[in-house]
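From the methods appendix. Each design record in this collection lists the tokenized structure first, followed by the designed amino acid sequence. Records were kept in a plain field format so they could be parsed without special tools. The example shown here is representative of the layout used throughout.

RECORD:
FOLD TOKENS (190 positions):
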């Protein structure tokens, strides 16, 4: 395991060829959560949904300087009606899903830096808010979002759904993080 501080991380729009890397990041996160006795992501990932998101250009993957995948996230305009209502003004936000940071890269603000990158991208596309629905039974994750400036709006206990802790952050709220530098290649062709 190497020191991840002061890294440059390149983020780009993921392609179908990145599906194995995205699934590996999710599997590693699921194993880590299982070891912590948390039920988050203990069901198989919805691979077809991930394929659809890849085809739509909604999945992003970050690599470290050696080219190793270190994070993934999905961002789109889908305001899940199990959670978000008309009163939330769903079109004013972009929505995050499947946010994963590789364990060897954890603890160096990479997740927070990527969330701020997502907020900047959302603001550039005219959205006032960045939103997510977090796993309800992972108190450490919920505390993380609160600590990093997200507002917990409410928790929805929808049938057959395990996420539902609804958070949002203004897209203009992006503090500077020093440990990791993002090199954005999402608008670079090819």
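DESIGN:
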């Amino acid at each position: 395991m190497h020191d991840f501080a002061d890294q440059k991380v390149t983020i780009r729009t993921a392609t179908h060829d990145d599906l194995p890397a995205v699934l590996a990041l999710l599997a590693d996160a699921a194993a880590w959560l299982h070891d912590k006795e948390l039920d988050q992501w203990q069901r198989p990932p919805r691979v077809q949904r991930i394929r659809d998101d890849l085809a739509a250009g909604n999945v992003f993957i970050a690599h470290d300087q050696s080219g190793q995948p270190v994070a993934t996230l999905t961002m789109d305009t889908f305001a899940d009606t199990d959670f978000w209502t008309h009163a939330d003004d769903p079109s004013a936000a972009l929505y995050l899903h499947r946010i994963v940071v590789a364990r060897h890269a954890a603890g160096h603000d990479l997740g927070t830096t990527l969330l701020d990158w997502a907020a900047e991208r959302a603001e550039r596309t005219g959205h006032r808010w960045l939103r997510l629905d977090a796993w309800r039974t992972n108190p450490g994750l919920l505390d993380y979002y609160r600590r990093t400036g997200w507002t917990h709006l409410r928790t929805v206990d929808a049938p057959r759904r395990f996420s539902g802790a609804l958070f949002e952050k203004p897209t203009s709220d992006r503090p500077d993080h020093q440990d990791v530098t993002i090199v954005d290649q999402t608008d670079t062709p090819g």
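APPENDIX NOTE: The chain has four helices and eight strands.
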